[in-house]
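call fold(seq) -> tokens
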Amino acid sequence: MLKPRIRVLMAAVLAAIPLALPLHALAAADFKSVGADPAILYDAPTLRGKKVAIAPPGMPVDPVVAESDWVRVRDATGEFFWMEKKALIDKRMLVVNTSTHAVASIRAAATDTAPLVFQAKVGVLLEMLAPVSAGWVQVKHRDGQTGYVKATEVWGE
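ret:
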């Protein structure tokens, strides 16, 4: 049995939890991309917040929380920022983010033995054409080349 003092403290903590929850939590894997224009990333959901970075067009982000006109997002490095919701588009872009090699290999089919179509360095943006299947993602480079990359070599899927 809890002592009365601990029960009161626990009740206060539990009562405060709903206040700490976001107004609208988004489901994981609802990745979005920055639209055609660069977007300013803030430390708070207000234009008066500190500007901490600029997201380039096409940068994939993982929306975590939405509050009216603002979205808290996580980037490929794992950092969190606030940005205006209107800066995001539904087009799915991926960024090459491999820790095992300096480049990601994009192949003609979803297998390690398929012919190499091209290689992409870390930081290169690729358009996601189809969802992950058997550990591979179908992608398109901005120059029009398409192929398959291992899901572990990109971020934003």
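Residues 1-28 have pLDDT under 50 and may be disordered.
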